[in-house]
Amino acid sequence: MKRTRPTTGQSRWRRSSEFRLIAVKAIRRWNRLRETAPKCGARRKHDGEPCQNLPLANGRCRFHGGLTPRGDQWHKPQLPSSPEKLRRKLADRERKAKKRAARLARMTPEERKQHERWHRTHKPGSAEARAAQRIRRKQDVEARWLIEKLQKASAKSKEAPKREVGQAGLGRRKKPVSGGLRAPAEAPAVVDIFS
């Protein structure tokens, strides 16, 4: 025979039809409000549609970055107000710092150089500062490309055949031009139309 526990007044209330009617009304009211409330709007991975979860303070739900700190504070550790959580967080940070120091100690000089180069190019900062750095890096690459192009062009022009300057200022080529063309034997006569 199955034994049942004695029910308290609270559990009897929760199972009553009156309580269920109140709960159903509350859920329906909440669902109506949820329909009109603003949504997260981030693109979902599984179907690409906008996320329908309710947003947090920064406009995204907890799954799409709503818990991430905003602005210039995004890369700084957020310390909790509870002493127990704070103790755990500080212990985690200390453990991670020791792990990072051990990893850096194991690196070869080449790996360390590559690691430091990566950290120089990936500095934390505000979104505007990082966007400005990206634009600056892109402009630097384009400028380097243009400088190399100009240097190649000037090197080609130095290699081009030099001309001898005649009496009238017209020159004769010393070497034939590439492509099978040959320079004329004599410079054409210049007619002075102003005399």
Tell me what you see in this structure.
This protein is mostly helical and 195 residues long. Among the domains are: 13-70, no CATH class; 81-122; 127-154. It has helices at residues 9-15, 17-36, 83-106, 109-121, 127-159; strands at 163-165, 171-173. A two-stranded antiparallel sheet has the order 1-2. The protein is elongated, with a radius of gyration of 38 Å.
User: What is the succession of H and E elements?
Assistant: HHHHHEE
- Residues in helix, %: 40-55%
* Shape type: elongated
Q: Which whole number gives the mean pLDDT?
A: 79
Largest sheet, described in full? Answer: 2 strands, antiparallel
Q: Which structural class should the secondary elements be placed in?
A: mainly alpha
As an assembly, this protein is: single chain
Uncertain segments: none
What portion of the residues fall into strands of 2 or more residues? under 5%
